[in-house]
Amino acid sequence: MTTKAEKERYAKLARIGCVLCHHLQRGFTEPQMHHIRKYGGKRELAPTIPLCFNHHTGPEGVHYMGRKRFEAHFEITQEELLELTEKLLASA
């Protein structure tokens, strides 16, 4: 079940758009929420970043390519995308 704080964070993340598209300077794209569960653990406790369909579950997506291939392909880690996400949230 999503908490009020999570809903508020997701709303803010939705306004940012896909953080990878932002990084690649492709403009705003409608995001889905991606939970970074690199070390296992519960989904609801994992940090979240906004990724568009293509970068989340599509052909260039982290779930399609796998974390290692995704990060090698785009030359950026999920943790770096999380750091960028937090900077974008702070400046919004």
Task: Give an account of the 3D structure.
The chain has six helices and two strands, in the order ααββαααα. The protein has 92 residues and is mainly alpha-helical. The chain is globular and about 35 Å long. Strands 1-2 form a two-stranded antiparallel sheet. The chain starts with a helix and ends with a helix. 52% of the residues lie in helices and 11% in strands.
Q: What distinguishing features does this structure have?
A:
mainly alpha, 92 residues, 6 helices
Characterize this entry briefly.
The protein is mainly α and 92 residues long. The chain is built from 6 helices and 2 strands, in the order ααββαααα.
Q: What is the ordering of alpha helices and beta strands?
A: HHEEHHHH
Tally of individual helices: 6
Strand content: 5-15%
N- to C-terminal separation? 27 Å
Mean pLDDT: 91
The level of helicity is: 40-55%
For the sheet with most strands, the description reads: 2 strands, antiparallel
Which class best fits the helix and strand makeup? mainly alpha
Shape: globular
Supply Rg: 12 Å
The low-confidence parts are none
Number of strands: 2
Strand order of the largest sheet: 1-2
